[in-house]
Structures are given as structure tokens and as C-alpha cells.
Amino acid sequence: MSSESRNAEEHKIFLDERRLQEANSRKVIEQFDKAVMTLAAGGLSISLLFVEKIAPEPRPSTLFWLAGIQHLESFFIGFGNHFPSLKNHF
Questions:
Q1: DSSP readout, 18-37?
Q2: Could you tell me if 80 and 33 are in contact, meaning their C-beta atoms sit under 8 angstroms apart?
Q3: Domain chopping of the chain, boundaries
Q4: 26 and 83 Cβ atoms separated by less than 8 Å
Q5: pTM: predicted TM-score of the whole model, two decimal places
Q6: In Å, how far from its chain's centre is CA 35?
Q7: N or C, which end of the chain has less CB nearby within 10 Å?
Q8: CB-CB contact of 32 with 83 (8 Å)
């Protein structure tokens, strides 16, 4: 087997593996997007239920809830930035 044909075969294998990695990456990103949308919808419905039924007239000391919401936002932003950085790594 010549060196050129071996290199061509290795290159073909590399390209096939690369396509498989990209397809898997797209699947993971789609699953993440679905999970974030589900969690966001659940969080919104719980928040609206809380405001409507439990605390229709909130006290000014509700900064605790705002801090919790900001914590979740920063978590999801960080988690969302994780996938593009992985894609750039490969």
C-alpha cells in the first residue's frame, strides 16, 4: 500500500469521524434548547402562580426572590455558553 493511498484513507476516516462529532454536537445542542425552554416555561408558570395566588401584594423585602432569579439566569447563561466553547475546542 502506497503512502498516498494510506494518507487518503486516513483522511477519509478523519472526515467521517468529524461529521459524526458535528452531528452529535447538534443533537446535544437541540436537547439543551428543549430543556431550557421547558424549564423557562415551568419557571414562568410557577412565578405567575405565586404572584397571583400566594403573594398578590408583595412586600418590599422580596429582594431574596430577585437574587434567586438572577442566580438562575447566570447559571443558564453560563451553561449556554459552554456548548459553543466546546465546538470551538474541536
A1: HHHHHHHHHHHHHHHHHHHH
A2: no
A3: 3-89
A4: no
A5: 0.52
A6: 8
A7: N
A8: yes
